[in-house]
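Final report, results section. Input specification for complex C-07:
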Amino acid sequence: MRDLSDAFVELIRLASTDLSPDVEKALIAAREREAEGSAARGAMDSILDNVALARENSTPICQDTGTPIFYVRHPRGWSTRTLREQIRAATARATAHAYLRPNAVDAISGVNSGTNLGDEAFPTIHFEEVEDEELTVDLILKGGGCENVGVQYSLPNTALGAGRDLEGVRKVALDAVNNAQGKGCSPGILGIAVGGDRGSSYAASKEVLLRKMDEPNPIEELNQLEERLTSEANQLGIGPMGFGGETTVLGVKLRGMHRLPASYFVSVSYMCWAYRRRRMVVHGDEVIYE
Amino acid sequence: MIALTIPIDDKAIRDLHLGDSVSLSGVLITGRDTVHKWMIETFIRQTREPQGDDQQVYDIIQPILDGGAIYHCGPVVAGLDTADYRFVAAGPTTSIREEPYQAGVMHHFNLKAVIGKGGMGETTLAACREVPGVYLHAIGGAASLIAQSVRRVHGVHKLDFGVPEAIWVIEIQDFPAVVTMDAHGSSLHADVSAHSKMVLDELIGAD
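Structure output:
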């Protein structure tokens, strides 16, 4: 099997330093909505200047380069063990190049490994065998500030008057945005999973963030809820950085899962404006980055 | 834009109000979760004895913090292998985690400015009034841009805390931030949060 380590380093560099065009477009639109001279407008100006500078200098958009989360979809016959070794080697190299901050801290000893390599969940790597002939690898870098404001609700929730239906989902999602205020680096993007167990639900709330900003939900009922939630979250007036303003969230991505009759979890992963995700596709000898 | 230079005097602090844009210059230190806990336990509450180079580090940072500023930041640093350090990405981290420690640190060191993101709570707001001091909000995530304000890295202490958690002594010039908590008892975060809670209650039909 060929060595893709160099290609993985490039994937990490792109994810950390070169924001996807769909996200930048949403940020530009958000800037235009903020009043001239407001703190919110100033924040959006700085955010967009920073995006351009990071791209130009190949330096991290945000110093918290987060947990690297890889989603690997591979054709039959690829060794996931070898891919894991290559991804881990590339992660350490990208850290040495200062594309990533050393972020893997042993929770018991408090020691930072210095390489971004921790246990088997750091970096996180999901593997799935697919029918395609191409190898597709998505990478999300999700920082700690926004990860800390993520939350999981178990419905019904009496305090919020949230029952086990989409109206209940709407209520808890808005509660999550209100509780986050500016601490998750607003304007953010919400990944929401409805159902599953506690573990699968949280995992899905991150995976749903792979959808493009302008890609509508194929399920009309969920698409409408995504649009409504975006509009209502923005009515909260929290604004960029929590300074007050028009845009609190850039978008919402929802998905339903299967659940136990007894459980109804709603998991909300808050992604900061520095919504760093990149894809690479390996087709024969060719490596394409999206 | 109001220019502030470290050390900052009380009058300059009291002249600042919510929403003011400031441009900060001078020498300051970075400090986040591990540093705040270390300061409180070793030198303020003194629940643990100074160990290793604790006292030496204290003696170095004490004059920098007197009338000075602390930055909640865990940077990406180039040149780690040669000790020719350069900040390449240095945005703020979420400040609220330091809420249990910040007021104690401000009082102990006569700290005038706390720089971070997301704002802080009532205990820190009270300390801003008493010391007096301010909370300066930097733009979260704008790490490459902010790193340009870091002109020089003077040195690093407690590197064994890890790169993000170490005490980096840095010289900044024209570091941009917004006053979101002032020395007069006002907090933009409290105002925005009260408003959003009111709207939330309307949207979800709560009593």
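Helices of chain A lie at 5-17, 21-33, 39-57, 80-96, 144-148, 166-180, 198-207, 220-235. Residues 39-57 of chain A form the longest helix (19 residues). This concludes the modelling results for the funded period.
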